[in-house]
Amino acid sequence: MVYTCTVNTDLDDLIGTEYCDGQQAIFRYGPLTRAKKLGEELVLENSAVLSTLMVAKIRMMLGNTFIDDIAEEICPQAGFRLILR
Description:
Strand order of the largest sheet: 1-4-7
Low-confidence stretches: none
Number of domains: 1
Strand content: 25-35%
Order of helices and strands: EHEEHEHEEE
Radius of gyration: 13 Å
Shape: globular
């Protein structure tokens, strides 16, 4: 899986966000959580534009991640890895 970063990329873009479809709130998983759940490789293209703080936050998310919005813990499955390009 490939995600292209911009200077505006934040953790919500990578983890996911909750939105309303008109009747109910739905959580849309971001590329980081999808890759962790599926045990896939995630390539963050153009990662050089990310701030040092943002890269540090991403590295902190490589282990188990608890998503408050949906009360779910995402554990990285075998095969998951992150590549910064």
